[in-house]
């Protein structure tokens, strides 16, 4: 890719020096093409900063295009992102900006982000927060997600919030035994929750989350929708706060 960009950069620079009608690379002889290649090399050896500028410009354009594409994905899937009717809603339910997190209970960066998001919600006070279980890291991930969804469906949102917090700070393996112990510690009906983990209603929630993530080209965790923006990966509190501020300014 670097060689292609290098050649393209020099090609554009040198070609611009000649009238368009006088410059047709496809009509060059082999000798002319060879001479042109030498000219490209000579130009870049004397002006290496051109390549750096070209790479920076290309990266900036690609980044801007990705932001625009992501914004369109958020817009096209807004109802399922923000108002699916089943995902837990925390923070300030009446907040003026909504953050939605696609997360996995075995994801190291999700656990790191948990503290950042918690601080952001507390410090801001006007953010609506939605969690979407998106288990992609294996059997333990799915067990944790099924357990959390089953808790919500059987015991309600308050119980879900406590279990979610516990799972995000929990160390060790996620097994039926450890999840049963957690349910009992929370004063929940552990047997009923474990039994419900494989119910179709739980499976349907995860299926819808998977399908939404697929439509939005989300393949890793954590991933955040912050207002109309999509953040792919972990970011510190300050970066997320800046995105929240941008959303408020845009309204």
From TrEMBL:
Pfam families assigned: DSBA, ScsC_N
Segments forming domain DSBA-like thioredoxin: 98-241
UniProt cross-references to Gene3D superfamilies, sorted A to Z: Glutaredoxin (3.40.30.10)
Residue intervals of the Copper resistance protein ScsC N-terminal domain: 32-65
Keywords: Disulfide bond, Oxidoreductase, Redox-active center, Signal
Keyword RNA-binding: no
Signal peptide residues on this chain, from the entry's feature table: 1-20
Highest rank taxon of the organism: Bacteria
Keyword NAD: no
Protein name: Disulfide bond formation protein DsbA
Source species: Thioclava marina
């Amino acid at each position: 890719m670097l060689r292609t960009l290098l050649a393209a950069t020099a090609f554009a620079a040198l070609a611009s020096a000649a009238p368009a009608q006088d410059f047709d690379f496809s009509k060059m002889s082999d000798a002319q093409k060879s001479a042109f290649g030498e000219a490209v090399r000579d130009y870049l050896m004397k002006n290496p900063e051109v390549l750096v500028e070209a790479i920076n410009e290309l990266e900036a354009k690609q980044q801007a295009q990705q932001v625009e594409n992501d914004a369109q994905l958020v817009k096209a899937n807004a109802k399922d992102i923000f108002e699916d009717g089943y995902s837990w809603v925390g923070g300030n339910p009446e907040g003026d900006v909504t953050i939605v997190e696609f997360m996995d209970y075995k994801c190291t960066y999700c656990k790191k982000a948990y503290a950042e998001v918690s601080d952001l919600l507390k410090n801001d006070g006007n953010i609506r927060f939605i969690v979407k279980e998106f288990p992609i890291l294996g059997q333990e991930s799915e067990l944790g997600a099924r357990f959390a969804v089953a808790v919500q469906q059987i015991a309600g949102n308050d119980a879900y919030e406590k279990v979610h917090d516990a799972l995000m700070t929990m160390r060790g393996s996620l097994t039926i035994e450890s999840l049963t112990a957690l349910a009992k510690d929370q004063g929940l009906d552990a047997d009923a929750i474990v039994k419900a983990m494989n119910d179709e209603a739980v499976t349907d929630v995860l299926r819808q989350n998977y399908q939404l993530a697929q439509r939005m080209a989300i393949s890793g965790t954590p991933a955040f929708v912050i207002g109309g923006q999509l953040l792919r990966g972990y970011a510190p509190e300050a970066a997320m706060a800046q995105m929240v501020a941008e959303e408020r300014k845009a309204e």
